[in-house]
Amino acid sequence: MKLAVFDFDSTLVNAETLEVLAQAYGVGVDVKNCTLRAMEGKADFYESLLTRVAMLKGMDVGKAKEICQSLPLHIGAYEVVQGLHQRGYKVVSLSGGFTWATGFFKEKLGLDGHFSNTLHTKEGVLSGAVSGPMMRADSKAEMLASLQELLQVEHTLAIGDGANDISMFKLANLSIAFNAKEITKKAASVVAQTLDLREILDYA
Question: What backbone phi and psi angles, to 5 degrees, belong to 190?
Fold first, then answer.
């Protein structure tokens, strides 16, 4: 059994969900600075996530969902999922982002599964709280290890861009840094040379 594991934000989609939500809510600069520090490994991922989501408190739920479901895909997103399926891979997304986005794009892209976090709501607006299985820097490694055991995976391909993807790279037979930060490139087996996800099929 072969498993391909994709990060979501800035990997499958050409955006950081939290940043797009924050921009629409007028707190874009503060959240972007916080995100950058976390993705470069300069801030604790868990603390950073809590801080950034808290800035979204009061945002309209309908607006937030609409944004999550209209994120731009990277070039080749459909083709890479289809191509990996044809080569016998199960394809899943592990994301520190949110189910409103990952669940929508799971169906759109035909992924086999998605694991991400849930934005809490109260009376039609975001409460500023978040929970889920993907909240810490090593969450992706923990989930990947569980999937490898559950599915009896013999070969794992991992694709990501940020510091929090490095933990899952360590459990993969092949890791690809795509649209990646320098810290992530150094930890990967392969560094993608383009922003076209179809390039991944050259290595899979």
Answer: -135, 140
User: How far, CA to CA in Å, does 174 sit from each of 59, 188, 190, 203?
Assistant: 40, 8, 8, 9
Name the catalytic one among 7, 60, 165, 196.
7
Catalytic annotation present for 9 = yes
Give the C-alpha separation, 41 to 45, whole Å.
Answer: 8
Give the Cα separation of 105 and 107 in Å (integer): 5
Give, as one character, the DSSP assignment of residue 192: -
Contact 49, 19 (CB under 8 A): no
Neighbours of 41 (CB within 10 A): 17
User: For each successive 10 residues of the chain (204 residues), what is the average pLDDT?
Assistant: 97 95 95 81 86 96 98 98 98 97 98 98 98 94 98 98 93 97 95 98 96
DSSP string, 56-120: TTT-BHHHHHHHHTTPPBPBTHHHHHHHHHHTTEEEEEEEEEEHHHHHHHHHHHT-SEEEEEEEE
Report all structural domains of the chain as residue ranges with CATH numbers, in order of start: 2-202 (3.40.50.1000)
Cα 66 vs. chain centroid, distance in angstroms?
18
